[in-house]
Every structure is written in structure tokens, then in C-alpha cells.
Amino acid sequence: MVKSNAYEDSTCDDLRGKEVSDFYFIMKFGKTTMSQFQQDGEWRRRDSAVKRGQLSIPSDQGNAIEVRALRSSISDAGSLMHNLSLSPSFQDRRGSRNSFGMALPIPKSPRSSRLSGSRDPASLKRDVLASQIQDMAKEKVEAAKNMAFAFDIDGVLVHGSKLIPEAARVMEVLNGDNELGIKLPYILLTNGGGKTESARVDELSGILKSPISTDQFIQSHTPMQALSEYYDTVLVCGGEGFKVRQVAEDYGFKTVVHTKDIQAWDPTISPWSKLSDEERKQAKIRDFDNLNFDAIMVFADSRDYQTDMQIIIDLLLSENGRLKTKAKNPLANQIPIYFSQGDLVFPTEHALPRLTQGAFRIAIESQYKTLTGGDLERVIYGKPELATYKYADTVIQQWMKEIHNEHTLPKNIYMIGDNPQSDICGGNMYGWNTCLVRTGVFKGGDNDINNPANFGVFANVLEAVQAAVKKELGQEFKLKWQDEEVNPVLQPGGVSAIE
Description:
The protein is an alpha/beta fold. β15, α16 and β16 form a beta-alpha-beta unit. The N and C termini lie far apart (77 Å). The longest helix is centred in the C-terminal third of the chain and has 19 residues. It has 17 helices and 17 strands. The chain is elongated and about 70 Å long.
């Protein structure tokens, strides 16, 4: 059997007639190509498309697009992907690699909005007045529709469950409390996760005192829902309780196994960890002796490092993803593993940033290398990975249609974050305007040395939004709606502002 990295730069033509695992072929060229490989001409068409840099559709339903993830930035499709670092210091995450040489599928299907359709009379009145003002200021309106914001959450809008005070005012301004009464498009783009999008949106709406829709919200694992068309049986871990199991099931994975399910089935698999009575009740035990896992999904921070690491390592070293087996050559037969994000630390209510999923991944990589002598093949989603930004484009476009009935992508997008190695690095590489705030991870000087924010460094999110709005809409643009300055069409004797 050919080792997975032996043909890293191979084309379909190179591999024709050689013994290559189905897994490697699918990860390199896509599931559709594998099924059609024996058909004359098809493999040539696919390879040619890859070399031309075309992003093909790995689904007959057309609900995903591919973004190639590479080992090396100098490979043919290197311009389509930037990658996370293996360096624990994370000083420069731009020069390293994502593994598998695979295509990362991204969901494109729209989601149902979670915003309420009911409006109070005062809001309806302001909408009417705002419509008239906007009719008289078409140039400013077009400029407003041609800008958008992407916010990190932790360290920018909130600290854990606590609101950063300036964030509430930002939500008011973007939701129409400005001189045009216009909604400015924005999305929330976080490396957090571990629960369903709807559950997290409900929490944030309460903290921010502003309605947030699932249509404008992206968690680190949100784009991973597209992987459900490739894998049936998956191991999931991370987050509180069994919530990530519900996440994976909602994404469409057919057989979802939580690490605690396995621990309940065989407690000896993690000798120093004990399940609570409630965890035993929620665990779904089945015949794991005869179950082959297709992939491993780390959706959020592990709450039980020992158990999660042990089971993950067991499967990475297994024969065909079956527990209690050991592959003769694990480097050639490793099942795929996906991490939802790569941050090493994140801000909390604690005085100093805390370790997060990146630290967990580094530990697994180190264990795997010690046990096998080879590097762990893995794929990372989240910021600053290109797959996340490609997906963000589709979400912004959908949100533009929701609030302005225009399915367009604004030209001027501002990424506001607190982490230079994820928020700013990714935004810079994707061509967004980047704003670094001092309310989270970043505690440096004038700007970050390795990943400087190209639009500037600000004390908080409100200052960043104010600077961006005034740049795009003019220094005199007012970030406050003034009823008294509007032609009072709804007052007795009033004359319409658009007559």
C-alpha cells in the first residue's frame, strides 16, 4: 500500500495503475473522482481542473464548494489556501500547512432566519421615516450597503457570559440607530463552538440585548456540516456534556458516537476518569467491537483531556478505524481527523487568556509523533483558515438578501478581532480591512508585530466601528437616529419627504 504522503504532489495520471488507498484518493481528489476514476477521460478532466485552480463541486446536489488545503504553500493550489502553524508559539501561522492534501467542502445552502417577524409600532414608524431619508440620500445608502462587518465574539463583544459595554451600542448602530436609519450588514465569526448555532444565538441575543439570527452567525464548526456527505460514522468530542453529539446529528452525520459513549461501554479505556450518573444515563452504548469509524471530529474544547486523547489516539493507530485493533502501518492507514479551530489561547473572565483547542491538538500531534515517528495528518477549520472566509462570504451575501433584498457581497468588509494570530492573520490574507481591539487577547503596543491590523488598533469595538463607518460614509455621518430631523410625514399636516 502506498503511504499517504508518498504521492503528495501526484496527479490522477501519476496514480493510475498503482495501489493507493481509497481514503487517500478521496482526500486528494474528491469522492466523485474516486467513483468515476475507472471511466476513461473523467480522471483527466478532474486533474486538469485542479491544475487550473477551478473550485469544483463535490456534491451532486451542489450545496458545497471546495477549497483545497495543502501541505505546502508552493504547491499548485497553494494560492487557494493558507494554513495554521504547528509551532506552539503561534508567532507566525501563515507559513505552515493543513494536512491530507484534500478539498475542504463548504456548505452553501441557506439557513432559516431566527429573527422574529413581529415589530412594535415605534419601530414601524421609524422604518417609514428612514425609508424617506434613504430615498433622499441614495449615494450614502449605496455606500452603507457596500460595507459590512465581521466580528469575533469572545474578547470583542463579550467576556464569557459578560457583555463588553461598548458592544451593546455597536449593535444599536448597526441595527439602524444612525442618521439613515439603515441596517449595516454584519456577521459574527467565532472560533468558539460546542453547541448548536441556534442555542448560541439565543444566548448572545440575551447578552447583547439585540436580536441575532443564525443567518449571520458562524461558529468554528459551522462549515464542517458539509463533511456529512463524506462520512457516515464519526467520533465527536469537546464541549459541555453531550451537546456536540446533537450538533453533529443536526449537521446530517448518520452515526454519531461521543467519547463518553465509548467510556460507558468500556470504562477501562480511560482508567483514571469516571463518568457521573447523569453521563451514564445519557450515554448511547452499542457494539463498538464491530463498528468502524470513518473520521474523528473535534468540535470544541475537551472537558476530559485524558479520555478524549486516549480514544482519539486509539483510533488513529487502529486498523480501519476499529477500536481495540492496531494497524501494522498507522502512517499509511490513519483515519482522518478534523479540528474545528486552531487557537492556542482565548480570552475569558480570568485575568490571563486560557488554553483552548490548539493546545489539545498540539498534545495529540506530539503523542502521535512519539508513537509512530511520523507527523499527524489533520485538517483544521476556523480562523484563519481560508475555508472559513469562503463560507463567510456566502453568509454575508445571504444576510444582505435578508436585510436589503440584495444578493451581493459588499466590497468593504471590516474584520474586528482581538487575536492577531487568527482574526487579523485570516482577515489580512483574505483582503479584508482588519481592526485589532485591546479588550481581549492582544495586550501589545501600537500594533502586532507579526500580524498587524491593516486598518488600525482600537481601544474597543465601538471605536473600531466608528472609524470604519466614518471612513466609508463621511466624517460627519451621525451614529444616532434623530426623529426630530426627519420630515414628520406621520404628524398632522406633515408633508412627505419624498414628494
